[in-house]
UniProtKB/TrEMBL annotation:
It comes from the Bacteria. This is DUF4280 domain-containing protein. InterPro entries: DUF4280.
Length: 131
């Protein structure tokens, strides 16, 4: 079943993040979908492509672990700084290439080194890519 194509306006969530974040697609800036740059599975650069998700609650995050230790074991969130554990998004388009790279679609996921699963929950478009 076709899934909506992802652009710079896509909304993402992280399982350990306190707030959603908005994709900033930079891998194919000349390819526009509904007037916004198209995203590909290569758009995984922390801060640039994947902005922070507010506060992080993963104890694998050294800042969260330190804050929690200082609070005598009470989980204490710290600012999120995504660190990608995988070099590319997973579950992107299987047949739609943008500049030779699979396009990114709603539902695609990648993993943060601190254990969070980052997922595109709103592609920011109405158009679908073919799987």
């Amino acid at each position: 079943m076709p899934r909506p194509a992802t652009t710079t306006t896509a909304t993402m969530t992280c399982t350990f993040g306190a707030a959603p974040s908005t994709m900033n697609a930079t891998s194919a800036p000349t390819v526009l979908i509904e007037g916004n740059p198209a995203a590909t599975i290569r758009d995984t650069i922390p801060i640039m492509n994947i902005p922070p998700f507010g506060m992080c609650t993963s104890l694998a995050n050294p800042a969260v672990a330190a804050a929690t230790t200082a609070a005598l074991g009470v989980l204490t969130p710290a600012p999120c700084v995504p660190v990608m554990a995988t070099p590319a998004w997973q579950n992107g388009a299987t047949r739609t290439l943008i500049g030779g790279t699979p396009g990114l679609t709603q539902g695609a996921m990648c993993t943060c080194a601190y254990g969070g699963v980052i997922q595109i929950v709103n592609a920011g478009t109405l158009r679908s890519q073919t799987g």
